[in-house]
Automatic annotation (TrEMBL), chains A, B:
Keywords: Hydrolase. The lineage of its organism: Bacteria, Pseudomonadati, Pseudomonadota, Betaproteobacteria, Burkholderiales. This is Zn-dependent hydrolase. It comes from the Bacteria. Belongs to the peptidase M20 family. Residues 208-308 form the Peptidase M20 dimerisation domain. NCBIfam families: hydantase (TIGR01879), PRK09290.1-3 (NF006769), PRK09290.1-5 (NF006771). It holds the Pfam family M20_dimer. GO terms for molecular function: hydrolase activity. The keyword Cytoplasm does not apply.
Length: 406, 406
């Protein structure tokens, strides 16, 4: 069994880097704070005797040798970047749970057949740079290194320059790093486990996701003298589309999701009819067919509104991954470990994307969920119980041992 | 008759201060550029022999003596601050038309019975500081000097500090400056004159206005794992209100206006359900009764939505002025001058607020409209024809002479 107190202390220590007044964390990818967080985790890895590799997109792998160096490592990890108003556990828990597994094995001097690795992936959140889950995406060939390098934040700073600046532009070619199996422990980020009173979520798979940037172009004009009938109000058309995004999410339960999270209005003056509105759209569902139906519906709605209003509306898809069922072997390993440890459990489909959906393209992958308070994450008040976090970490320990061989 | 070429040249010269790439002007109130604009107009006033007074809110009065110094001056003017993406004519035309009247009288050595004055008022646009029409509002007692001084821009800079910084914090107590009558020439800022093919709009009055800041508070949560039914999506509720603002504008034609110009979403991340949305609402109509009905309707709608959704919604009124009918004497003076000069004409109710609605509280006031291209203003492509601008200036000349006595 892992050390609950040590795991919790590490989480709290890492959470101080970028800590916010409201008890959350703001540690955006490739900022100075991200560098500080990375440095701290690296120092812990070194102290645990792990050898470090960094690849060209800044993914970090910390390796514990196995008896058989010819075997590919059993890997576990997640990310340490956060949302602008993020919490202490999202991602961070997966990395530190994997580290706690290593510390526990060191303490008990348990050797494994295959090597073990702790990984943390660059820019999982996608808040500062798109695409989301950038590091694991490049690693697994979902998109190219050049594409990721070229991404810029709102200030125009690029991923490549920022990697270099913080000293995490490594040398290894992404993907040229063998993986035998990948496990990721994570808070659920939803209310299902808590509602059902269960401790461990076995994750059969992850909802597919489509992200879009939408731009509505109307005509700026003065809010006073311009009669209602003569307006080309970009916001009035945009708000109709925003409402339809949510309607489409509602139309395909239980896994349909439709969200507008980001809006910019131009020129954003209170007595000017908006001439342009840009906003994001986020659609998700559990099968490729359902997600595609939602995709078709929002595009059809947009085309219809453009025809009806005469306004130009552009919707560009900026991210997509299909729904990802996890490998039966990994799902079974998690289920078996949970049963052996005697934790209450249920299956929980992940609504959030995780680095594991990309590693699943290269190696058998699986996930372990633990409850978070009120199902809330991507919020500074994100919270989780030490005992639940420890339970997830114990399941991770057993699943990794079963997979690596003792 | 005034000098069309001189008027146009002055407009073009002033428009170079803060000129934008797209041919517009960005000269926000009390910025360095506003100072440059003020300095230029002042230098022209001095060159025309005018004596200058500046009051404590930075309103500027440039006086040409009359035969009878005991008579209050006949005043004309407008403002020279602009929107963030504004044009060359809004406000600037009214100030330079008044100056052109003076230049013409000087040239022809015509003396008037009452003194004449050219005025420009501080922060008419309300883009940088609320309330809108600040200088004339303080001058006419619509709100206090202290209230105006305390207004801050988004960077936290105050009106008083900025007035001091640019050297336009004058000594005269606002309002302690007699006004016999006030005329303001302005581009229409709407499409009515152009559509009807008329040159001069006689303005019977101005629509009343209500401005609000609205805040919807929901709960931030992750866009993936949070089922639709468990969300408190502040944006979904806000967009419904935004649509209703426009619906209410549509419900009371022909003068009803409903506009949302400004929106801010928090935390504004594409995979976070918005926890808070702030936006402006702008309602207008031609009678106090209609405007009040619209006011009641939006408040009732907001209360209902708050009850239905359980979300907290605050709507605070930040500006209000009632519909303003102009003084019959001034309206007649404009009508008579237009007829004498033989211009095509019609009545046009002003949808935009103007400094004249505040001067109307102290002295008989009236306005003269000329067409602007496609009815567009508060936009960098705002445009107007030299001949139309000259026509409005000729009407102003004749109305002022009639009012001041020759
Ligand atoms: N786990 C997580 O927050 N992933 C970010 C990508 C997403 O929005 O699902
Ligand atoms: N004329 C003008 O643009 N006034 C600003 C106040 C308003 O929005 O009506």
């Amino acid at each position: 069994r892992i050390n609950q107190e040590r795991l919790w202390q590490s989480l709290m220590e890492l959470a101080q880097i970028g800590a916010t007044e409201k008890g959350g964390v703001k540690r955006l990818a490739l900022t100075d704070l991200d560098k500080q967080g990375r440095d701290l985790v690296l120092s812990w890895g070194r102290a645990a005797g792990l050898s470090i590799t960094i690849d060209q997109i800044g993914n970090v792998f910390m390796r514990r040798a196995g008896r058989n160096p010819a075997l590919p490592p059993v890997m576990s990890g997640s990310h340490i970047d956060t949302q602008p108003t993020g919490g202490k556990f999202d991602g961070n828990y997966g990395v530190l749970a994997a580290l706690e597994v290593i510390r526990t094995l060191n303490e008990h001097q348990i050797e494994t057949e295959a090597p073990l690795e702790v990984a943390f992936w660059t820019n999982e959140e996608g808040s500062r740079f798109v695409p989301v889950m950038m590091g694991s995406g490049v690693f697994c060939g979902a998109f190219s290194l050049e594409h990721a390098y070229a991404a810029t934040d709102t200030a125009g700073l690029s991923v490549k320059d920022e990697l270099q600046r913080i000293g995490y532009l490594g040398e290894q070619v992404p993907g040229q790093h063998p993986v035998g199996a990948y496990f990721e422990a994570h808070i659920e980020q939803g209310p299902v486990l808590e509602d059902a009173g269960k401790v461990i979520g076995v994750v059969p798979g992850v909802l597919g996701l489509s992200w879009y940037d939408c731009t509505v172009t109307g005509m700026e004009a003065h809010a006073g003298p311009t009669p209602m009938g003569l307006r080309k109000d970009a916001l009035q058309v945009a708000t109709g589309i925003m409402q339809e995004v949510v309607n489409i999410g509602n139309r395909y339960p239980p896994y349909g999701r439709g969200t507008v999270g980001m809006v910019q209005v131009f020129p954003n003056s209170r007595n000017v009819i908006p001439g342009e509105v840009k906003f994001s759209m986020d659609l998700r569902n559990v099968t490729a067919e359902l997600l595609d139906t939602m995709h078709q519906e929002i595009l059809a709605f947009i085309e219809q509104r453009s025809r009806e209003t005469g306004l130009r509306i552009l919707a560009e898809r900026v991210s997509y991954y299909p729904p990802c069922p996890f490998h039966p072997d990994c799902v079974e390993a998690v289920r078996t470990a949970t049963a052996a440890l005697g934790y209450s459990t249920m299956d929980v489909v992940s609504g959030a994307g995780h680095d594991a959906i990309y590693t699943a393209r290269l190696a058998p992958s699986g996930m372990i969920f633990v409850p978070c308070k009120d199902g809330i994450s991507h919020n500074e008040i994100e919270d989780a119980q030490p005992a639940h976090l420890a339970a997830g970490c114990n399941v991770l320990l057993h699943a990794m041992l079963a997979s690596a061989g003792v």
